[in-house]
């Protein structure tokens, strides 16, 4: 049995202690914003915060984090108002979007400890892989988020459309396709 806190809620996983945190989050907690990318800790699609630090959740056995605090993309800001999330929208960063939650989590952790990163700092800290190659937009969004977090700028962008975070884990009823005209 493993106990720690996920997104402010105490959890108790009855899983093998060697289970990667990624799979506990996705399979047992239905927190699917954390993505499986490579399973080797190289791509960063599975990045979450563990006690405030960005970690590759595919490489963290749940038995090693007893008593820790985990934050996933779902709880970075429930209303999507975090400066990094807002900058991502304002700078139109995502293309396919698969890697974005991991990159956003890595950037948010970096900006907490270094609110004004240089290009070298960004290169050293943000090693996530974006297969679509949106790196120039990512760098612009990081700079934009840093300015917003410092209070030097605001973002007029509204939260992105989509599923309300409160509804994210609820099942969506199956849709019945419409019948062709003239067929009853």
From TrEMBL:
<keyword id="KW-0408">Iron</keyword>
<dbReference type="InterPro" id="IPR036884">
    <property type="entry name" value="2Fe-2S-bd_dom_sf"/>
</dbReference>
<dbReference type="Pfam" id="PF01799">
    <property type="entry name" value="Fer2_2"/>
</dbReference>
<dbReference type="GO" id="GO:0051537">
    <property type="term" value="F:2 iron, 2 sulfur cluster binding"/>
</dbReference>
<protein>
    <submittedName>
        <fullName>Isoquinoline 1-oxidoreductase subunit alpha</fullName>
        <ecNumber>1.3.99.16</ecNumber>
    </submittedName>
</protein>
<dbReference type="InterPro" id="IPR012675">
    <property type="entry name" value="Beta-grasp_dom_sf"/>
</dbReference>
<dbReference type="InterPro" id="IPR002888">
    <property type="entry name" value="2Fe-2S-bd"/>
</dbReference>
<dbReference type="InterPro" id="IPR001041">
    <property type="entry name" value="2Fe-2S_ferredoxin-type"/>
</dbReference>
<feature type="compositionally biased region" description="Pro residues">
    <location>
        <begin position="175"/>
        <end position="184"/>
    </location>
</feature>
<dbReference type="InterPro" id="IPR051452">
    <property type="entry name" value="Diverse_Oxidoreductases"/>
</dbReference>
<dbReference type="InterPro" id="IPR036010">
    <property type="entry name" value="2Fe-2S_ferredoxin-like_sf"/>
</dbReference>
<dbReference type="Pfam" id="PF00111">
    <property type="entry name" value="Fer2"/>
</dbReference>
<keyword id="KW-0479">Metal-binding</keyword>
<dbReference type="InterPro" id="IPR006058">
    <property type="entry name" value="2Fe2S_fd_BS"/>
</dbReference>
<keyword id="KW-0560">Oxidoreductase</keyword>
<keyword id="KW-0001">2Fe-2S</keyword>
<dbReference type="GO" id="GO:0046872">
    <property type="term" value="F:metal ion binding"/>
</dbReference>
<dbReference type="GO" id="GO:0047121">
    <property type="term" value="F:isoquinoline 1-oxidoreductase activity"/>
</dbReference>
<keyword id="KW-0411">Iron-sulfur</keyword>
<feature type="domain" description="2Fe-2S ferredoxin-type">
    <location>
        <begin position="1"/>
        <end position="76"/>
    </location>
</feature>
<feature type="region of interest" description="Disordered">
    <location>
        <begin position="156"/>
        <end position="184"/>
    </location>
</feature>
């Amino acid at each position: 049995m493993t106990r720690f806190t996920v997104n402010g809620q105490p959890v108790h996983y009855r899983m093998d202690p060697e289970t990667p945190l990624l799979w506990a989050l996705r399979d047992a907690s239905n927190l699917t914003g954390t993505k499986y990318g490579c399973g080797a800790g190289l791509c960063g699609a599975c990045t979450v915060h563990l006690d405030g630090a960005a970690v590759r959740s595919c490489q963290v056995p749940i038995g090693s984090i007893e008593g820790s605090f985990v934050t996933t993309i779902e709880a970075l800001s429930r209303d999507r108002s975090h400066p990094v999330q807002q900058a991502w929208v304002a700078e139109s960063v995502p293309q396919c979007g698969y890697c974005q939650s991991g990159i956003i989590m890595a950037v948010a952790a970096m900006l907490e400890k270094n609110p004004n990163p240089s290009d070298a700092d960004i290169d050293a800290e943000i090693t996530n892989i974006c297969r679509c190659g949106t790196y120039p937009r990512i760098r612009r969004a990081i700079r934009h988020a840093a300015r917003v977090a410092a209070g030097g700028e605001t973002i007029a962008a509204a939260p992105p459309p989509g599923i309300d975070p409160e509804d994210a884990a609820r099942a969506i009823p199956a849709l019945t396709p419409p019948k062709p005209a003239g067929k009853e």
